[in-house]
Amino acid sequence: MNYEELIKETALADDRLIVMTAENRALIRNLPAVLGPRFIDTGITEQTLIGAAAGLALRGRIPVVHALATFLTLRAFEFIRTDVGIGQLPVKISSFVPGFLSDGNGPTHQAIEDVALMRGIPGMTVFAPADEADMLGMLPQIWASPSPAYVRINTRPSTYQHTPFEMGKAEVVATGTDATILVYGMLFEQALIARELLEAQGKSVGLVNLRTLKPVDEAALLQVVQAGGLVVTLEDHFQTGGLYSILAEVLLKNEQTAKVLPIALNEKWYKPGLLSEVLEYEGFTGQHIAQRIAEKLGANPAAITTKTEVVENEFAE
Amino acid sequence: MTSEKQDELKALALRVREHIVRLSTDGGCFTGASLSCTDLLVYLYADFLNISPETLDAPDRDFLFLSKGHDVPALYGTFAELGFMPKARLANHLKSNDSIYWHPNRSVPGVEFHSGSLGHLPSVGLGVALDNRMRGLTNRTIVITGDGELNEGSVWETVLVAAAHKLSNFTLVVDRNHFQANVATEDLIPLEPLGPKFEAFGWAVQRIDGHDFAQLEAAFGALPFSDDKPSVIICDTVRGRGLPSIEARADRWFCNFSSDEVVELLKELHSQEATTLTSETLTVR
What we know:
A: about 325 residues; alpha/beta; Rossmann fold; five-stranded mixed beta sheet; about 20% strand; B: alpha/beta; five-stranded parallel beta sheet; about 10% strand; Transketo_C/PFOR_II (chain A); EC 2.2.1.7 (chain A); Transketolase_C (chain A); thiamine pyrophosphate (chain A)
């Protein structure tokens, strides 16, 4: 099962589902022939794509819209906020190549403020699956929900056997007393590697796959904080407005504090290149992440010598 | 159209204009832009569209989207006269006990979708027209835009997409009152030749006097103009139509009159003799 097969199966079972795109067909190339008029390509018109999706949703449809993350969330932001958000319509946004996944495209294509923007819209739900298997486990519930939804599409091959998805709940992979890595999206696989490297150095390290960024699993975050170790927020997003900000909001709301290490893009776009080059250059491979955490814990980062092999991105769009 | 029918619509439009004038105080409203599309809205709801307070849920009813949302006093005035909403509800204008404000929203039965930000509802209407076609229904989807609103690139996106999809059940109506917020359209971003622009984009076009009920009936009665193109009706109108003292003036878009002036303007509606206005007019909102 892949993304296209899942959406095809869902659409064939439920004629409310409409597949829409602003000429971004990478994941849905075979659907026009299968869905006929229920496949709508508006051309390179993100604003009209979202407005038309709102109109279809008004008529009881469930439009799943596809375009590049940055153009959807930035070019069409006001349409998402004003038509989908104010209307509280069940438009499902499949956001392609978010974060580091736009690798070689350059800063025009870097959706690294998308979580901040989308979670700022009242009623919008925000999801970031760790990999393809995680995503396929999440999408049926996301599409079945009456809420508008933003999904960071992630078709990276899985390196971990995930637990079943529960709406609004994080996946706690491991608990730890020295540090816990909070992560969402494609950096999950690097976080897994980082955790193993740190454990090999004798550190007790927890790992939480957030899955849902809004509504966030507050209880899971508070449990991590109460464990007392270093809390690491790891994200391919600007440091402002994403997970680091979410954690700060949860801590303030609950009158708590924690020692936090944010690993994010702080006031910068990332160096474009092959994904392996990007992660290496920006310090987001498993090895680099482990070294950054080790340093913060007062351990010797140079002891972590295993270089991380990064699987390249499948898409060049 | 019979002269009796025309007289009936004119009388209805006059009552709607009275509502607009009464809403133009205690905070005011977009008076000029509302008066230009009053005859259009009155014709559509009273004589053309298959929409009534009783048939809002009917599967075959038509859809009208008001994309130039700031002319909502004309819509609410029409709704109040045709029984979509109680007339008394207009007294709640800008009050927190209701949701009657400067732009439309769905708390008023008959409002299909909220608007206010220009250039949105052509695309929302496109989605509804696509849905109706998918369902094999013959419902008409009509979107009213302003002429200044045609500055927005999103309108032209939708114009391209509707033509590509040969959406003959989709109609755009341009309230061509020749003014945008502060200045005449042709002095800022010229739109003419407007009909040929739409034709070049693959639309079927008619251009009429938007205050002439016989012309409105002839144009809307001829829809769809083509079996494989969307239709556009450009309605030439006058900003502030019905009140000679504010007609076709750049500085009478948003008006907030004193209560004495409202009394004089209500007389002016009937007499067509210009009133002397002294109140400060806000032109930017």
